[in-house]
Amino acid sequence: MKLSNTIFASTALASLAVLAPSPAFAADTPAASAPAAATTLSPEDIQQILARMQSLEAEVASLKAAQATTAAQVAAAPAPVAAPKIDIPGWVKRTSISGKAFANVSSIDHESDGANLGDNGTQTELKRFYIGVDHRFDDTFSANLTTDFRYNANGTSKDVLVYVKKAYLQAKLAPEFFVRVGAADTPWVPFAEGIYGYRFIENVLIDRTKYGTSADWGVHIGGSFAGGKVNYAASAINGAGYKSLSRSSNTIDLEGRVSVNPTKNITFGLGGYSGKLGKSSDVTVTQHRATRWNALAAFTNSRVRAGVEYFQAKNWYNITSLASDSSSGWSAFGSFAFTPKFAVFGRYDWVKPSKKINPALKDNYFNVGLNYKPIKEIDLALVYKRDRARNGFISTSNGTIGGLDRGTY
Fold first, then answer.
1. Model pTM?
2. Rounded Cα–Cα distance for residues 360 and 379 (Å)
3. Burial status of residue 73 (CB atoms within 10 A of its CB: 0-12, 13-18, 19 or more)
4. pLDDT tens column, 67-88
5. Residue-wise over 366-397: b if at least 16 C-beta within 10 A, else e?
6. Closest listed residue to residue 209, CA positions, set 392, 396, 389
7. Is 167 within 8 Å of 140 (Cβ atoms)?
8. Which residues have C-beta within 8 Å of that of residue 148, sequence separation ≥ 6?
9. Cα 208 from chain centroid?
10. For residue range 256-301, what is the model confidence (pLDDT) as tens digits?
């Protein structure tokens, strides 16, 4: 073995010596000069080269062994353990819970004919608190339950009252048609609230003056056409509102609405109501049928809201009276957002509750304020309200307003 290594090394070195120029050639000696002698290595040099080659062979073998060991370890390693999968029931995925609260800190000055009434002062109030549960059975059927918490402001008690505001089963057969059975939104008030945008400040015109309600028990239908530009809603209801599950022995009340959006920012609405307001079982005197017409026109975009609402009613507060009466009123509202977080708003209502029985009675209401929205889900507002009824009384969402001469809330 040693001899053959020596012969190989000597041959390689001899080849290199032939390619390398000799000292005589580098010095430009004549071509006829004798050829230079080949360079030779000592036995010690050859031994060092052989030792280095053996060391490199050992390193290569070691790397191959390490590579084989690593591959074996990877092949033998257990598979990574997957995170445990949480199996969420389907009914949970199809159920959503929502909430909404109207709370305020207010200072009230309530007078009647110059005398202060018992609800004056400064206090914190929970005006409304809703909890809603929506469940979708499939693409057609769904259900909703919404509770309404409020404090009873009847002058003698502040107990918490809990109502079922909405409880219905819905079948949505197409964008053009859905049907709800139970307590659900009535056609006009929720529609007007969506346009107004400041329900947390005050109820809309007919809800504030109690010429309409936001929900009632019955059968409700609705839908939209032309890509949402035409909307309609209609209800056959008990007539007493969601707070009273009364049974009307003779008739049911009917309410409907049609609204049109000729452009993205413009809305026109027209609505009507006819019925006994849940009092058809009170057959004590001649009864009237209450009727109401509503109209609304508004412009809304991301910064501006401006609109006007009008209603005309007949025999609303005198169902069981022999005398006939009529009412009318209008509301103008507007708001402007300086930034996505800050906006100013205002509204004015004028109502004539009794054109025949007490034509001198009038109600004037207005509010003005500044709204701050720190995040999308929260509105904080500083607002001033005033409600005045002259020459009589009117029942509103803020209590009974008025006096024989004047009344201020």
1. 0.76
2. 38
3. exposed
4. 877 777 767 767 677 777 787 8
5. bbebebebeeeeebebebebebbbbbbbbebe
6. 396
7. no
8. 128, 129, 130, 162, 163, 164, 165, 242
9. 25
10. 999 999 999 999 999 999 998 887 765 555 578 899 999 999 999 9
